[in-house]
Design goal:
The structure holds two protein chains of two kinds. By secondary structure, chain A is an alpha/beta fold. Chain A has one domain (6-253): Rossmann fold (3-Layer(aba) Sandwich), CATH 3.40.50. Chain A contains ten helices and twelve strands. In chain A, strands 6-9-10-3-11-12 form a six-stranded mixed beta sheet, sandwiched between helices. A four-stranded antiparallel beta sheet of chain A has the order 2-1-4-5. The longest helix of chain A has 15 residues, at 101-115. Chain B is built from three helices and six strands; from the N terminus they run ββββββααα. Chain B has a three-stranded parallel beta sheet with strand order 1-3-5, with no helix packed on it. In chain B, helix 2 (95-111) packs antiparallel against helix 3. At the A-B interface, helix 2, strand 7 and helix 3 of A face helix 1 and helix 2 of B.
Chain lengths: 254, 135
């Protein structure tokens, strides 16, 4: 938190899907080196927020702007946003039959290198690189030869998301409920993965329902989202308070 | 596929890709004669749907005239949808590459049986044909 350089600025964002407005005047600024947690009841717009930032085509931005490192990304395609360094760990990672995890990861990595005008790396080099990354999430190399997320258990899917994050080394990572559906050990491994990955020139947004993840990964700020906007912002203490009192507590105050 | 002799074996692999509003139907006929004792047949029928408007059907017809045979039929359908494409895009992989990868993954089983030059050609032709069919 020593440098106050904003990495992501969201201004007055309104977004809809199928003509239903989900995000209503959302404002959020995230600086380098910060970990933000977004909490809130189901259907408050947390996942919509993550998909809008990543540029999902089904969501339309009605108003406002999203700035990444000072530049608007609203007009950019999802792949360009990814190349800039925006990463979204999916709440429900998609299964891709017929495509091996290794091919998928290599292609993703090479696309990123290509966008930075660097040479692509060959499969052998890539294999030694990915093997190092595998250790972060405690996965066996056999994991690579399976098809992307196909037949993976819930925990394996989430670990695969973290593996991709570690590989692509994004500046901004949005983790959409990466902690749900994990057992205690897997949660620890993933949290350690996140902590090792985090450096002062990156930023992370954790979308979560549980205090548990925040015990392992310490956030700088916690935002509570309700009905498409942020209704309360606080420090890590806020999560504990929420755990006890629930979201209704905030509603009554309004 | 017609089995006449004893202990004969056969395998049918069908792969169909439907895109846009197209429909794809597999109609197969496996006939095992009364003398074809111990005959085996395995049929596999995979369909790949691209987009929400395409359609795939499987109509396998199996006729067995003796009781000592083993016949199997398997069918699967997978779909390339918006969410899968978005997953690729989010990881920085372009739409064309994404489709190419999924199509060649789908066809791999068949293409590996083809001579190398032809397999490559077929792969490229497919990607070319399917370009712009999604999204």
């Amino acid at each position: 938190m020593n440098s106050e350089t904003p990495i992501l600025e969201i201004k007055n964002l309104r977004a809809c899907i199928d003509n239903i407005e989900i995000l209503k005047n959302l404002d959020l600024t995230i600086n380098k080196g910060e970990i933000h947690a977004i909490m809130g009841p189901n259907g408050s717009g947390k996942s919509t927020f993550s998909k809008v930032v990543a540029g999902h085509p089904a969501y339309k931005v009605l108003n406002g702007d999203i700035l990444f490192n000072g530049k608007s990304i609203l007009e950019l395609e999802p792949e360009d946003r990814s190349h800039l360094g925006i990463f979204l760990a999916f709440q429900y990672p998609i299964e891709i039959p017929g495509v091996s995890n290794e091919d998928f990861l290599r292609l993703a990595y090479n696309s990123k290198l290509k966008s930075q005008n660097k040479d692509e790396i060959d499969p052998i080099e890539f294999f030694s690189l990915i093997n190092k990354k595998l250790q972060i999430i405690n996965m066996a190399p056999a994991f690579l030869s399976r098809n992307v997320n196909e037949g993976f258990s819930g925990g394996e899917k989430k670990r695969n998301e973290i593996l991709q994050m570690a590989l692509l080394d994004p500046e901004l990572s949005i983790l959409d409920e990466t902690d749900s559906g994990l057992d205690i050990d897997a949660l620890k491994i993933i949290s350690q993965g996140i902590n090792t990955f985090m450096t002062p020139d990156k930023a992370i947004i954790l979308i979560t329902h549980y205090q548990r993840l925040l015990d392992y990964v310490k956030p700088d700020y916690i935002h509570v989202m309700q009905d498409g906007k942020i209704v309360k912002t606080g420090t890590a203490e806020l999560a504990k308070e929420l755990e006890q009192k629930g979201y209704e507590w905030l509603k009554k105050k309004d | 596929m017609i089995h006449i002799g004893k202990n004969t074996r056969s395998r049918i692999v069908s792969k169909g890709i439907s895109t846009g509003k197209s429909k794809n139907s597999y109609r197969g006929f496996v006939n095992i004669n009364n003398k074809a004792i111990g005959a085996r047949n395995y049929s596999q029928c995979d369909s790949l749907l691209i987009g929400n408007l395409s359609n795939a059907n499987t109509f396998p017809l199996i006729s067995v005239q003796n009781s000592a045979t083993k016949i199997e039929h398997e069918a699967s359908t997978s779909k390339i949808g918006e969410e899968q494409i978005f997953y690729f895009l989010q990881r920085g992989i372009s739409l064309e590459k994404a489709i190419e990868l999924m199509i060649s993954g789908f066809c791999r089983e068949v293409f590996t049986e083809l001579p190398l030059e032809f397999a490559e050609e077929a792969d490229r032709l497919l990607s070319l044909k399917l370009e712009g069919s999604v999204g």
